[in-house]
Amino acid sequence: MTVADNPLSIPPPALFEMAARVNKKRGFLFVSKVLGKHIPVSPLKPLLASGLLAIEYAEKTSGLRIDGKDEVTAGFLAEDHESIKKAYDLLNKQRFQLPDPPIVIGFAETATALGHGVFDCLEGASFIHTTREILKDKHPVLLFEEEHSHAVDQRCYTDEPLFSAADRPVILVDDEITTGKTALNIIRDIQRKHPRREYAVLSLLDWRSEEHKEQFRKAESELGATISTIALLSGSVACEGQPLDQSLYDDQPHHREMNVSVRRIDISDCFTALPYRSEQTGAAPFVKETGRFGLSHEDKCGVETACQKAAGRLNALRKGKRVLCLGTGEFMYLPLKIASLMGEHVAYHSTTRSPIHPSDDEGYAVRNRFCFPNPENESVQHFIYNLPKRGYDEVFLFVETFVAEESLRPILAIFSDREIENVNIVAFSKGSVGNG
């Protein structure tokens, strides 16, 4: 690994650790320590990461120096809650005005919250995130492939004329780019259907080779549009050896007795249910505030108010001192935002489809792994990583819809194995999985 650009002088170990993917297409993974996916983090850290990307983009676009940038960076690197919170409060008071209001797109599943956080910071912006959901009787406005992934098809759905204004730049947000092919795939799809002059790709890490950067330059010439890139850390990587095609790690809980206290919490009155139905499950579990179907700048206050209301309710019910808030799959931002409003001693991360090989080696990013069927779609396997034994007194598991007791048993067995006594299942919608 060679670092070529580090605009904020962030030490690389503060951003990521390495792990092995169980994937023949790409055998390694930069496991983010600030994203809230595989490694538990302070829920304010991912929001600060989004803010730093937004600041870097705003400065590059406007040519101006953003006030408070150093303070936000310092808080991002801090480990104590007070410093992190002070930096986030400073960031939250600012909205960056750009020459043209952008459309921000977050990539599923890992960067849905990261993209939403960038949208929060940009005045007049709109937001949508890609999804792997397939909807009944609804066609995506965009369809493209994430070539290195184990689940390659990505879609965007919206009823809004989101891409109709050709003068609006499109900002794509991902956690890292290694080749940039996914970004170019979606840019080509947008340009074919809704041509415009300006695109930007924002990522925490940018590992494109000179050959891959040349592909970006060729795409600019081919499409007649500029494609700028912003990253907190850029450089190059080289690897040798063969990727894993399987992991023999035992990822099933060994605790046979179910010893957890389970409470269901319905916060559907805080959020706006949508009528769309999943092709896979037949359910209508979706809520507007995720951004999966598009959000305008007018929606920001509504999302903030809904999350504050939900956080207040959960805080009133909270029993534990050491609390884990756990998102599910691409349903990341709303759980993250609510967790950020629940005070100290709260950790956040999310379940994922991505199979990673665990190891106890020093400095390795993934120490343990548990596999279970996603309660909202049991045909899809999900994983939880880095879940310590007796690490938390209480967990809040956030699901977009109400799920049946039987569907929850596998993940409850994992919490029992980890000796988490109090488990809250927090549902954002009353749509029932499997209700047709």
Automatic annotation (TrEMBL):
<protein>
    <recommendedName>
        <fullName>Phosphoribosyltransferase</fullName>
    </recommendedName>
</protein>
<dbReference type="InterPro" id="IPR000836">
    <property type="entry name" value="PRTase_dom"/>
</dbReference>
<feature type="domain" description="TRSP">
    <location>
        <begin position="289"/>
        <end position="414"/>
    </location>
</feature>
<dbReference type="InterPro" id="IPR011214">
    <property type="entry name" value="UCP020967"/>
</dbReference>
<dbReference type="InterPro" id="IPR029057">
    <property type="entry name" value="PRTase-like"/>
</dbReference>
<dbReference type="InterPro" id="IPR041688">
    <property type="entry name" value="PRTase_2"/>
</dbReference>
<dbReference type="InterPro" id="IPR022537">
    <property type="entry name" value="TRSP_dom"/>
</dbReference>
<dbReference type="Pfam" id="PF15609">
    <property type="entry name" value="PRTase_2"/>
</dbReference>
<dbReference type="Pfam" id="PF12500">
    <property type="entry name" value="TRSP"/>
</dbReference>
<feature type="domain" description="Orotate phosphoribosyltransferase-like">
    <location>
        <begin position="15"/>
        <end position="235"/>
    </location>
</feature>
